[in-house]
Design a protein that fits this description.
Order of helices and strands of chain A: EEEEEHEHEHEHEEEEHEEEH
Low-confidence stretches of chain A: none
Strand content of chain B: 25-35%
Number of strands of chain A: 15
CATH topology of the largest domain in chain B: Rossmann fold
CATH superfamily of chain A: HUPs
Shape of chain B: elongated
CATH superfamily of the largest domain in chain B: HUPs
Helix content of chain B: 25-40%
Number of domains of chain A: 1
Oligomer: heterodimer
Largest sheet of chain B: 7 strands, parallel
Low-confidence stretches of chain B: none
CATH class of the largest domain in chain B: Alpha Beta
Strand content of chain A: 25-35%
Largest interface: A-B, 83 and 91 residues
CATH architecture of chain A: 3-Layer(aba) Sandwich
Structural class of chain B: alpha/beta
Shape of chain A: globular
Radius of gyration of chain A: 22 Å
Helix content of chain A: 25-40%
Radius of gyration of chain B: 22 Å
Order of helices and strands of chain B: EEEHEHEHEHEEEEEEEEHEHEHEEH
CATH architecture of the largest domain in chain B: 3-Layer(aba) Sandwich
Strand order of the largest sheet of chain B: 7-11-6-1-4-5-12
């Protein structure tokens, strides 16, 4: 079973509060914000490796992003993926979910023969959950999202359990298919020292827009139906009264305030 | 590809999600907002309902002032089937070319809407917290506001050239409008063109238990626990306070990861957004991706021992102190108040 795992490098959410707007250009300034592999993408890689251990085949990690995204790919290789593909080109910049999914689909068709595509269910930076289903549509394959358990009845049929509000849904997928997994599906392995040492001997291929066979107007900002119209800081408007001291006293004062505001 | 077509009467569509004969509340919430947008745009308001034997639901939608319900009715569509639903809805879009198409960001809505957008070749904006029509050089465009980078930023997204302009909105962001009598809309029954290809992913079972508790979005008081409640040893006191105020217990992502709360109780950008009358945060430091989840709360009371915690920047009244000492006193004070009322 050949599996492609789509991953993304994202800013560490613990540093989100340090992301500021440039007062003049109103653009995002994120210098100095550490980058990590999107957390649930590790679960997707783990799921791929477990399937590979059962059915054999090849696990490829794929991402689109700036040159430093190779760090996330190297982490995937250290976990045990066999090959990595980095889509890196200025022509890809500014892509929304639609253009991102379109570009990933073009690359998978071109470079990565597959039976299964796995993604994390969402990213911590934008969290739209849109790239997975869009990618499936562009690859013209069936899909299931937010999957917490995969049961391969045979190598070609997967019974996926997807989490929905107050329950779950069981979906039968014939491969080739795309599945987005959530954190409940497994516990991702930590790369071993040996795994990290093997990264250098594994293939990390880099492709630009030229190799994709896609017209430039389909890529990046040009290929994105949506645009950012404006960007602004947001602060909640609150009364900001703080109390400290004797617990009984502050509790009584807080409740009195809520009463005064007709909050209770 | 769908291009704006000015020669026809414009419509705004809302996807009316249903499961087992019940309309999802978020679809109704969207109708209120969509009706406001349709006034601004001079457009009609229509719903898309997909399922089997849904006449009753279609009539219910009309009672909210919807002018048209496109009702796709087929026994094969009784359960949600992502590719089949996406296929038939995309066909409807191609045929009628709505200006705007809104979806609830439920698990099914988030599964379905991107596939439809990809099929018809248009943009989609996820998890909007505000929607409004603005004039851009003579064209009336939908501005879709989303929280960015944990919620400290707001981003206005537009879809200038492609149609429909598609967006998802989480449950609880907008409010359900009132029923209108004699609304006089019509139900248009659609017979779908289904193919084998539509069922390559086949939903074989939907287990949907009745929620044992009220959805957290509907509670008037939400008591949310953060990592700091670990010092209490259990959530017992948190529950006691919540029960006393007839509220709902919720929590932060770390509590979900620890298994102390369920997914449907996690507050934040990647969880539930709530707008209760009173939101009480206990032992949460107030990371932005959490506080985004309760920005519509009328009042916020926060307790945390760290005076520097960002939670105090989003609280109406903040108590700096040890939860083990403060929480029992708070419960006592609320109890006294209840007795006095």
């Amino acid at each position: 079973m050949d599996i492609v795992v789509c991953i993304k490098q994202v800013p560490d959410p613990d540093y989100f509060s340090q992301i500021v707007l440039d007062p003049v250009t109103k653009a995002i300034r994120r210098e100095g914000i550490p980058l990590i592999m999107n957390p649930v993408d590790r679960n997707a890689i783990e799921a791929a490796l477990q399937l590979q251990e059962r059915f054999s085949g090849k696990v490829t990690v794929l991402t689109m992003g700036p040159p430093q995204s190779r760090e996330a790919l190297e982490e995937g290789l250290a976990m045990g993926a066999e090959e990595a593909v980095l889509l890196c080109d200025r022509a890809f910049a500014g892509a929304d979910a639609f253009a991102t999914a379109y570009t990933l689909a073009a690359a998978i068709k071109e470079f990565c023969p597959f039976n299964l595509v796995l993604c994390g269910s969402e990213t911590v930076d934008s969290g739209t959950k849109m790239v997975g289903p869009m990618l499936a549509e562009f690859l013209d394959i069936p899909y299931a999202t937010n999957v917490r358990a995969m049961n391969f009845v045979t190598e070609g049929i997967c019974l996926a359990e997807t989490a929905i509000e107050n329950g779950c849904m069981k979906v039968e997928l014939g491969l080739p298919a795309l599945i987005t997994v959530n954190k409940a599906i497994n516990e991702p392995r930590i790369p071993t020292v040996l795994g990290i040492m093997q990264v250098a001997s594994k293939k990390l291929l880099m492709y630009g827009a030229n190799g994709l066979g896609v017209p430039p107007e389909k890529l990046g900002l040009a290929g994105s139906p949506t645009r950012v119209a404006s960007l602004f800081d947001f602060k909640q408007k609150r009364r900001l009264e703080t109390l400290r001291g004797d617990p009984q006293h502050v509790a009584s004062k807080a409740v009195a305030k809520l009463r005064e505001w007709h909050a209770v | 590809m769908v291009r704006p077509d000015m020669s026809r009467h414009k419509e705004i569509w809302v996807y009316a999600e249903q499961t087992a004969g019940h309309l999802a509340r978020v679809g109704l919430e969207l109708l209120g907002k969509a009706s406001e947008l349709s006034d601004k745009l001079g457009a009609g308001l229509a719903c898309v309902l997909v399922g089997y034997r849904g006449e009753k639901l279609a009539s219910e939608l009309l009672s909210y002032g919807v002018e048209k319900v496109y009702f796709v009715d087929d026994p094969k569509l009784e359960h949600y089937q992502n590719q089949a639903y996406a296929g038939v809805v995309a066909d409807l879009v191609e045929e009628h070319r709505p200006e705007i198409f809104l979806f609830g960001a439920t698990e099914m809505g988030e599964d379905l809407a991107p596939c439809i957008a990809a099929k018809v070749g248009t943009g989609l904006t996820a998890h909007c917290v505000d929607l409004r029509i603005e004039d851009c050089d003579g064209a009336l465009i939908l501005h879709q506001t989303v929280p960015g980078w944990g919620g400290g930023k707001r981003v206005d997204i537009i879809c200038p050239r492609k149609r429909p302009q598609m967006a998802t909105v989480k449950p609880g962001v907008f409010t359900v409008p009132r029923h209108k009598r004699n609304a006089g809309g019509k139900i248009l029954r659609v017979t779908p063109q289904l193919h084998e290809k539509h069922f390559r992913a086949r939903t074989v079972e939907v287990q949907k238990g009745q929620a044992c508790e009220r959805p957290v979005e509907e509670a008037e008081v939400v008591v949310a626990a953060g990592w700091g409640v670990n010092s209490l040893g259990s959530l017992d006191l948190v529950r006691e306070l919540s029960d006393l105020l007839r509220g709902a217990v919720a929590g932060t992502r770390p509590l979900l990861d620890k298994g102390l709360i369920t997914q449907d109780r996690m507050i934040g950008q990647s969880g539930k957004v709530v707008g209760p009358n009173l939101f009480i945060s206990l032992g949460a430091s107030g990371a932005m991706h959490f506080s985004t989840g309760f920005e519509r709360a009328k009042f916020v009371l926060a307790v945390d021992q760290n005076p520097q915690a960002p939670i105090f920047q989003v609280a109406d009244v903040g108590i700096i102190g040890d939860l083990r000492e403060v929480l029992p006193c708070l419960i006592e004070e609320f109890r006294k108040l209840k007795k006095a009322m």
